[in-house]
Design brief:
Elements (H helix, E strand, L loop, with lengths): L1 E6 L2 E8 L4 E4 L2 E4 L1 E4 L5 E5 L2 E11 L2 E6 L2 E9 H8 L4 H6 L2 E3 L4 E6 L6 E2 L4 E7 L2 E6 L4 E6 L6 E2 L4 E7 L2
Antiparallel strand pairs: 1-2, 1-9, 2-3, 3-4, 5-6, 6-7, 7-8, 8-9, 10-17, 11-13, 11-16, 12-15, 13-14, 15-17
């Protein structure tokens, strides 16, 4: 499997070979071992060095975690995303131009639009209650509401689709 990982504007080409537990990073082959623990922590061993990886959060291509107590955020692209990018397509933009997803788990208190409504980018379209706070969710694009995937009082998970807008133009 081939990937590109970007940390602090520095890109790394990574190829992972699960069969013999090696990773090639920018042309240099490294042996590795991952040990998952029940508390969500991952131990990462490369050669004689052991690193503790904690606080792992994944949001599409964005991955954040702490390694040995230092927080790191990286953008990871797989082979398909890299190919589409080389062909001039942005997979993130294509997939989510008019897609509104829940930023966190919660309950839909109120939908402020209906299917077929015209909306402007940034216009409030739903109210999400999370951690006893009301959060106004805004339209990610200007256009027509194509579909609504939830109803008032529905509980939603993080990244669950709330509605889709057919962008103008």
């Amino acid at each position: 499997m081939q990937f590109e990982s970007t940390v602090d504007d520095q890109s790394f080409e990574v190829e992972i070979n699960d069969d013999n537990q090696t990773a090639t990073v920018n042309g240099k082959e490294l042996p590795y071992q991952l040990i998952s623990q029940s508390n969500g922590r991952v131990l990462f061993r490369s050669g004689t060095k052991l690193h503790i990886i904690d606080n792992i959060e994944v949001d599409k291509q964005n991955i954040s975690f702490s390694i040995d107590g230092k927080f790191v955020t990286t953008v990871v692209k797989d082979e398909q995303e890299l190919l589409l990018e080389r062909l001039g397509f942005s997979t993130d933009e294509l997939a989510s131009a008019g897609l509104l997803e829940a930023p966190m788990p919660g309950k839909i208190l109120e939908l402020l639009v209906a299917e077929g409504d015209e909306v402007e980018e940034g216009q409030p379209v739903a109210i999400l209650e999370a951690m006893k706070m009301e959060n106004e969710l805004k339209a990610p694009a200007a256009g027509k509401v194509a579909s609504i995937a939830v109803s008032n009082s529905d509980n939603v998970e993080k990244n669950q689709t709330i509605l889709e807008i057919e962008p103008r133009g």
